[in-house]
Amino acid sequence: MSGAVDLSPRVPAVRRIGPALGRDPLLASLVVLVLAAALGLVLLQPAPYLVNMVGQLAAFAILAVSLDLVWGYLGILSLGHGLFFAIGGYVCAMHLLAHAYAVTGTAPDLMQFMGWKSLPAYWTGLTSAPYALVLALGLAAAVAFVFGLASFRSRVNGVYFSIISQALVYVAMLLMFRNDTGLGGNNGMTGFSVLFGWPMGSPGVVTGLAVAALLTLAGVLVGAKVLVASPIGRRMLACRDDEARLRTLGYSTTRLKLGIWCLSAVIAALAGLLYVPQVGIINPRVLSPDLSIEIAVWVAIGGMGRLGGAVIGAVAVNALKFWLSAAMPEAWPFILSGLVLAVVLGLPNGLLDLAALRLRPASLKQTGLRPTSLKPTWLRRGGGLR
User: Fold this and answer.
1) Cα separation of 147 and 141, whole Å?
2) Is the distance from CB of 141 to CB of 266 less than 8 angstroms?
């Protein structure tokens, strides 16, 4: 009726779990910076060494994001993510050797060492890049599914899951040290000569690999942000904070954790695919538990539960490592240990805790914050990693 007053109750809008991409200044800035870096590599053509370092840092950042999805948002600390990283790297190495053998006709060192007259049957199809990509991602997802299903259905959580995941990657390392696996044994696989028909090591290939890693990092960041800002992200945080209550409400926490766990494994394998052609070698040392622990250190230093924090931690720690490996290689383990202690004792939320210290009391009236809210999270909650 004209002029009638609507007295129906107002239903409040559903609040999103997190800000949209445009409302997350840190993540938006990182995506823009990554895309600008990719454009700069193409236009400026810096030294190949610098280009290669940027590409490796991008691959490490992708690996850190993969762990942050399960640790920062699900509360599952994996100390075996190096396994999925290695799966992608080994499949990529197999493709590069098979492709080079098909193009050049020169037998790789691996064939000569093993006395093979041809590549084994399980290398069939690896001359195709799309097949190698599908195989790497599918194999990582399959291994993650089997391990995750056995663990999550048994409700293995906390430190027990971390120990089991580290044991898994250690067993894989021991297996890959054996020469009869046909994957290079202790020496690993190297001698990659061509990529898509182009000679490896040429400036164009080096730049192309680095740009591909940067664009992949930008895509992973945007995709992960969409995921954690969705209703699935709400359930991930609820599962992290109180899994028993979420299960009581009727949600399948096993299915949720298994899905995100497999997605994380696929992203880690993608990082391995991008990393190996840039360093030109892969061996069982990539499966060392030390690397898997170091991935957790990157995320902890950058800040868990913030995708941008994982990227910052991975880039900062590895850039420092690259510099110290040339300047003071013997000092790096001690410096890394010191960084870990500093974060655990002073900045449990990583470098992102430093942002809280930038606020000034003068802004209290404008923000409405109390003086205690200016303190970092660790001061208000009593410290300790979440």
Assistant:
1) 10
2) yes
Per mean pLDDT, which of 205-209, 346-350, 360-364 is the most reliable?
205-209
Residue 80 to residue 171: CA distance in whole angstroms: 11
H helix intervals, 177-230: 203-228
In one letter, which amino acid is 49?
Answer: Y
**What residues pair up with 189 in beta bridges, in sequence order?**
282
3-state percent helix, strand, coil for the chain, nearest multiple of 5: 75, 0, 25
User: Are the C-beta atoms of residues 85 and 271 closer than 8 Å to each other?
Assistant: yes
What does the longest C-alpha to C-alpha distance in the chain come to?
92
Check pLDDT > 50 for residue 366.
no
As a whole number, mean pLDDT of residues 195-199 equals 83
- Give one DSSP letter per residue of 117-152, joined into a string: SS--GGGTTTTSHHHHHHHHHHHHHHHHHHHHHHHH
Q: What are 318-355's pLDDT values in tens digits?
A: 998 888 877 777 777 777 778 778 777 777 777 776 66
Query: In this structure, are residues 145 and 139 in contact, taking their beta carbons and an 8 Å threshold?
Result: no
Return the minimum-mean-pLDDT range out of 15-29, 68-82, 138-152, 184-198: 15-29
pLDDT at 372 over 50: no
Tell me how far apart the alpha carbons of residues 225 and 351 are, in angstroms, rounded to a whole number: 20
Compute the distance between CA of residue 161 and CA of residue 151 in angstroms, rounded to an integer: 7
**Of the candidates 224, 208, 229, 211, which has an alpha carbon nearest to the alpha carbon of residue 38?**
211
**pTM for this structure?**
0.84
For 83, other C-beta atoms within 10 Å of its C-beta total 28
Question: What dihedral angle (degrees, nearest 10) is formed by the CA atoms of 26, 82, 329, 203?
Answer: -70
Nearby residues of 3 by Cβ (< 8 Å), 6 or more positions away: none
Nearest to 139 by CA among 154, 122, 114: 122
Nearest to 30 by CA among 214, 205, 196, 190: 214
Please enumerate in sequence order all residues whose Cβ is within 8 A of that of 235, keeping only pairs 6 or more positions apart, or say none: 246, 251, 256
Q: Which pLDDT band holds residue 178 (cuts at 50, 70, 90)?
A: confident
